[in-house]
């Protein structure tokens, strides 16, 4: 697979802002797993050959060809892949390379990010991160994102189906911003793997450098490291299954070898889009385009906590798009007429 060069966009670079491919709201919100057709121009991740060798049933998703499940392994199929990820001492490996990875540079990057997302970015210490929401002027959610602060840049992961629209939005907001900020889109030259499950730490430790202390690595923290001797990698303790886990960013040229190394471990099983969806649903985690969209506010989505607790700076100061539609002048949540809720299933009598 040829790696796309990273794209660096400086504030007020209007010609660069127009260079992002458009993403219609209908295609961005579509969340179906359909059979891939040869006529579709789908991007293949660095793990495509590995997926096929494991019997991956490939489908189009967010413009990429990804496995919905695996047929060539004993523990394949959505149900088995789901249960493996929940089992004690086990871990599942997901290819999430379709996600958008962005590095933010510049002395005013935290100030800029707080003008587009609801979270306390300025308060993040190096290596710490949070889940946040990109909002529009009505307070609706454009996307959800994980943001991690590093020493000289800020790392952001956005959804694959919305990433191009997100970057168009960021480019527009940068043109209005008066400070020092740059957006670097990593394209497909950096792939992303998610290692999830009760045994994820045990499996991850086997590819980390000697002496790396995973026991001291808290949830929603990350660091640059080597993985199986591969330079230029990052590990973040996070995920979207409801289990302990890690997201591993790795150069595209080495992604397949890292995945193959992890899968040599008998506690690690590959898992596809189907199990990823059922796991996040079981854990009560939102899927953009299904559970939340641009008409859903953070409070309607039951995600008001992403703005901080009562009396927190972001809730009292606002400053993000649509803040006045969601918060009162003293930082309290405005009343809404709808709210996302979970429904717990039960066995038939």
TrEMBL record:
Species, as recorded: Trieres chinensis (Marine centric diatom)
UniProt keyword Transferase, yes or no: yes
InterPro entries associated with the record: GcvT, GcvT/YgfZ/DmdA, GCVT_N, TrmE/GcvT-like
What is the protein's quaternary organization?
A: The glycine cleavage system is composed of four proteins: P, T, L and H.
Q: Which EC numbers characterise this protein's activity in its record?
A: 2.1.2.10
Q: Please provide the Gene Ontology terms (biological process) for this protein.
A: glycine catabolic process
Q: Subcellular localization, per the record?
A: Mitochondrion
State what this protein does.
The glycine cleavage system catalyzes the degradation of glycine.
Q: Which GO terms describe its molecular function?
A: aminomethyltransferase activity; transaminase activity
Quote the record's binding site residues for substrate. Answer: 247
Pfam families for this protein: GCV_T
For this protein, the parts annotated as crossing the membrane are: none
Residue stretches making up the GCVT N-terminal domain: 48-307
Query: Do you know which PANTHER family this protein is assigned to?
Result: AMINOMETHYLTRANSFERASE, AMINOMETHYLTRANSFERASE, MITOCHONDRIAL
User: Record's Gene Ontology CC terms?
Assistant: glycine cleavage complex; mitochondrion
Similarity-based family: Belongs to the GcvT family.
Reaction(s) the record says it catalyses: N(6)-[(R)-S(8)-aminomethyldihydrolipoyl]-L-lysyl-[protein] + (6S)-5,6,7,8-tetrahydrofolate = N(6)-[(R)-dihydrolipoyl]-L-lysyl-[protein] + (6R)-5,10-methylene-5,6,7,8-tetrahydrofolate + NH4(+)
**Main location group:** mitochondrion
Key words, A-Z:
Aminotransferase, Mitochondrion, Transferase, Transit peptide
| Protein name listed in UniProt | Aminomethyltransferase
Ranges for the region named Disordered are 305-326
């Amino acid at each position: 697979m040829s790696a796309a060069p990273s794209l660096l966009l400086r504030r007020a670079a209007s010609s660069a802002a127009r260079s992002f491919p458009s993403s219609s709201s209908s295609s961005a919100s579509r969340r179906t797993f359909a059979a891939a057709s040869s006529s579709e121009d789908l991007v293949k991740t660095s793990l495509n050959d590995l997926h096929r060798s494991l019997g991956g049933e490939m489908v189009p998703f967010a413009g990429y060809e990804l496995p919905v499940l695996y047929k060539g392994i004993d523990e394949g199929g959505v149900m088995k892949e789901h249960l493996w990820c929940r089992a004690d001492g086990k871990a599942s490996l997901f290819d999430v390379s379709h996600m958008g990875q962005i590095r933010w540079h510049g002395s005013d990057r935290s100030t800029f990010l707080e003008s587009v997302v609801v979270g306390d970015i300025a308060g993040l210490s190096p290596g710490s991160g949070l889940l946040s929401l990109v909002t529009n002027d009505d307070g609706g959610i454009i996307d959800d994102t994980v943001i991690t602060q590093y020493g000289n840049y800020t790392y952001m992961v956005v959804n694959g189906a919305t990433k191009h629209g997100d970057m168009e939005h960021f480019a527009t907001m940068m043109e209005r911003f008066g400070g020092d900020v740059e957006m670097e889109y990593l394209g497909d030259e950096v792939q992303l793997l998610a290692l999830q499950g009760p045994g994820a730490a045990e499996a991850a430790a086997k590819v980390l450098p000697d002496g790396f202390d995973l026991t001291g690595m808290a949830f929603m923290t990350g660091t640059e490291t080597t993985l199986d001797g591969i330079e230029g990698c990052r590990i973040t303790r996070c995920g979207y299954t409801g289990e302990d886990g890690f997201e591993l960013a790795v150069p595209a040229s080495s992604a397949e070898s890292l995945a193959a190394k992890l899968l040599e471990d008998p506690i690690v099983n590959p898992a596809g889009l189907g199990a990823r969806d059922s796991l996040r649903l079981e854990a009560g985690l939102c899927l953009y385009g299904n559970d939340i969209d641009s008409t859903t506010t953070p409070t309607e989505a039951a995600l008001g906590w992403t703005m901080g607790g009562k009396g927190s700076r972001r809730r009292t100061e606002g400053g993000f798009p649509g803040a006045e539609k969601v918060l009162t002048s003293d930082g309290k949540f405005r009343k809404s007429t709808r709210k996302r809720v979970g429904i717990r299933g039960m066995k038939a009598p």
